[in-house]
Design brief:
Blueprint: H1 5-16, H2 23-45, H3 48-52, H4 60-71, H5 75-78, H6 89-107, H7 112-129, H8 137-152, H9 158-180, H10 184-187, H11 192-198, H12 204-210, H13 214-229, H14 239-259, H15 265-272, H16 279-283, H17 288-294, H18 303-328, H19 335-346, E1 363-371, E2 378-379, E3 381-382, H20 402-410, H21 420-430, H22 433-436, E4 439-441, E5 451-461, H23 464-470, E6 474-483
Antiparallel strand pairs: 1-2, 1-5, 3-4, 5-6
């Protein structure tokens, strides 16, 4: 009697609540993934030299040389990047441009699998090389989604489960970290009283959202907890529950997009919600000619594709469980499990998530100033972060100005000599062209200033009446000098 593979596969698909092919969903998802990749590579292409180039803030050549001395042969596994071959400025730009081309190929459905592989390898290389500037959750989020896209190109329906596990895990952990952090703002449902003011790069609508009634803010926080802690379980339930989960997740992400510039982060989360839908959902809504064109070449997975996808699914679940075990019982995790967690996280294949765990309640801004006489100081202006009190808030989705973002994080902590900030100040003092290109204005175009300092201010929104009368959006009060740090404090 032959082994009943089709019957087992049918039962497995029913248990996982996935369709046999999900052709439409797969096609739409990969086109959306291509656009996310395209935005990420294009955003990096205009910043990469100033961030990690030879005249950048954290030159990748120096980092690779240091890693080679410290880790010897393990360097390739701990820092998996193609820039071991060449870390010159042209190579950095070439990687970004190659990523753009690969994204366009994927978007046009040309050489789909090679394009997916190249997008993943290039973005992994840039993420590793980017150091502090590419250490955000959305960078590894894109890597994990992109790696699953490679498996998806083989057509196994088990990848649908993996994508659903990813979106459910991401949303659920977002709620867990808020509770586990013990942050009083989340516990008292007052987090949104501060969020629209203190988030890194508010949108123009964030100003108005900040002045909404407190009862509305509390209601929204309660809704966030419901969506992040309860709704993720609907992902693995029958179709009506999955549709409800998709709608809930999309509404939450759309609200975040309207009030905060989080580059492609929320767009990628919305894209993953496609996997909570199915071909039937889209077949009733897409033009028939497009559906016919998509379904002319449905995926034909073989037994090897199902086996590999199933093996990877088992590994994903094991690594997720091992990660939770390591968090609660450090030092007691078996070495094979620990090695699996480290290896998969190094390559961005399986990651931990938990955004917005602690709410910042005050907004501090670092204002960098230069002077030629030590008396008259002129401020450098950045493209997106607040500085000028009258300059309006801006939209920059899906672009991420990574220096602006890191300055927001730097303002949350006391200055240290072992961070990227001293290197940034040194580059300004040198007048590094790639670094100056990351700024909006340079008040010293002819030569660098004789003196350079960074001042810390506490920012707040100007009341609506003041804004209506004067056009002022921000108000601020000095906190003190940020750099050079005061050694007496």
């Amino acid at each position: 009697m032959p082994f009943p593979v089709p019957r087992i596969k049918h039962k497995l698909n029913r248990w996982l609540a996935v369709g046999p092919t999900d052709t439409l969903v797969s096609w739409l998802f990969l086109r959306g993934l291509a656009m996310i990749y395209l935005a990420a590579f294009a955003s990096l292409s205009v910043q990469i030299e100033g961030l990690i180039g030879t005249q950048g803030i954290l030159p990748i050549q120096a980092k690779l040389a240091e890693s080679a001395q410290l880790y010897d042969s393990d360097k390739y596994w701990l820092f998996p990047t193609l820039f071991w071959l060449d870390a010159s400025d042209p190579a950095l730009k070439l990687a970004c441009y190659a990523g753009i081309i690969s994204s366009l190929l994927l978007l046009l459905n040309i050489l789909q699998r090679p394009a997916l592989m190249l997008c993943y390898l290039l973005y992994l290389s840039l993420t590793v090389a980017g150091q502090d500037f590419l250490s955000f959750q959305w960078d590894v989020f894109l890597l994990e989604a992109g790696f699953l896209g490679i498996l998806l190109s083989w057509g196994s329906s088990l990848v649908v489960f993996l994508y659903r596990w990813l979106i459910a895990r991401f949303m659920f952990m977002g709620g867990v970290v808020k509770l586990a952090s013990g942050d009083p703002a989340w516990a008292s449902l007052t987090a949104l009283n501060y969020h629209y003011l203190t988030e890194p790069l508010p949108t123009p609508l964030a100003y108005y959202a900040y002045f909404l009634p407190e009862w509305f803010h509390k209601l929204c926080v309660a809704g966030v907890f419901f969506i992040e802690l309860i709704v993720p379980f609907f992902v693995f339930m029958p179709r009506p529950f999955r549709l409800f989960a998709a709608g809930s997740f999309i509404i939450l992400q759309a609200a975040i997009i309207l009030t905060g510039n989080y580059n492609f982060f929320n767009l990628l989360t919305i894209l993953l919600c496609l996997w909570l839908l199915d071909d039937k959902y889209f077949s009733d809504r897409l033009p028939p000619r497009l559906i016919t064109a998509i379904q002319t070449k449905p995926p034909r997975p073989g037994l090897a594709a199902h086996f590999f996808a199933g093996t990877w699914a088992a590994l994903v679940l094991i690594v997720c469980a091992a990660t939770a075990w390591m968090h609660h019982f450090p030092g007691r995790t078996p070495q094979p499990l620990r090695a699996a967690v480290i290896a998969t996280s190094s390559f961005g294949m399986i990651n931990q998530y938990g955004p917005f765990g602690v709410m910042t309640t005050e907004r501090h801004e670092i204002i960098i100033e230069g002077s030629n006489d030590g008396k008259v100081w002129q401020a450098y202006e950045f493209n997106y972060k607040p500085g000028d009190l009258f300059r309006g808030l801006r939209w920059n989705i899906p672009h991420q100005p990574r220096l602006d973002w890191q300055l927001w994080f730097a303002a949350l902590e006391k200055p240290r000599h072992d961070t990227w900030f001293p290197a940034f100040m040194a580059r300004l003092q040198e007048g590094s062209p790639p670094v100056l290109n990351l700024l909006r204005t340079n008040p010293f175009p002819d030569h660098p200033p004789a003196f350079l300092r960074a001042m810390l201010y506490r920012y707040d929104y100007a009341p609506p009446q003041v804004r209506a009368e004067t056009g002022q959006i921000w108000r601020r009060e000095p906190v003190g000098r940020y750099w050079p740090p005061d050694r007496t404090r």
